[in-house]
Structure formats: C-alpha cells, structure tokens
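SAMPLE LOG
Freezer: B-3
Tube label: C17
Construct: single chain, 149 aa
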Amino acid sequence: MDVTIKPALQTNVPEITQLMQDFYAIDGYPMDQTKSGALLSEFIKDEKHGGVWLVTKEETTCGYIILTLIFSFEYGGWIGFLDELYIKDEFRGQGIGKVAVDFIISEAKRRQLKLLYLEVEPHNESAQKLYLDKGFKQHKRKLLAWKPG
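STRUCTURE (predicted):
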C-alpha cells in the first residue's frame, strides 16, 4: 500500500478545509469554511501549535490529521490532542487509518509528548476499535466543555 503522510502547506488549506467540511457533516457539526481556512492557515504557520498532515494514497488525497499541543503541569510537560483524523469514506477499510494512527503515535514519540488525547464519537465503533487496538485507553475522567456566549 502506497500511503504517504506529508506536512500540509499553505497551498493545501482550501483542500483541507473541504475535507473538514466533509468530516464535520458526518455528525452534523456546523462549520464556516472561510473561518476554518483562516484558522488553519494561522495554525500551519507556527509548529509550536502542533501539526497538520495530508494523508495520500498513490498521490490521491484521502484524508488529513491535526495534532494540537498543550502544556500540562499534571503530566509534566507537553501533551498532544489528536484534534482531527479524517479518512474519506471511499478509502476506509484499507488500513489507511492504521497507518495514520501509527504515524501520529510516532510523531508523539518524536516530540516527546507525555500523553496523547483524542475524542471519538460514541457511534464510531470502528474508530474506537482502531484506537483501542493501537494502545489507547478509556480515560477515567469525563470530558466537560465551556464555550463563551
């Protein structure tokens, strides 16, 4: 399988924001492509935020990965949040997600991250199985969120 994962460039922002639109639509999450494109462009400019990668198979884009970084005193340094990992529907079931997860684990080790978090939708059992098979564990804490406004 000829799967390549390469860092995203500013020129990839329109393509990635379209992929983001497709990803968000799966669960009906709202997305403003212009705003997301501007945020993605800002994010790509500075590696201290994390990283964005395109996932390709035989030169065809089949998905993307976004890793964000957070400093945690509890965990003793930098931790990662696998914010988004999306593989297009027509490429699922081909082992590409496994390659992407292996890549992000390797990247977390390279960056010497103390922990790697991710979220997965309760209905997405195949993603849950993939992550559990790769060594991720259910976290004992419940995720809460606050949003202004």
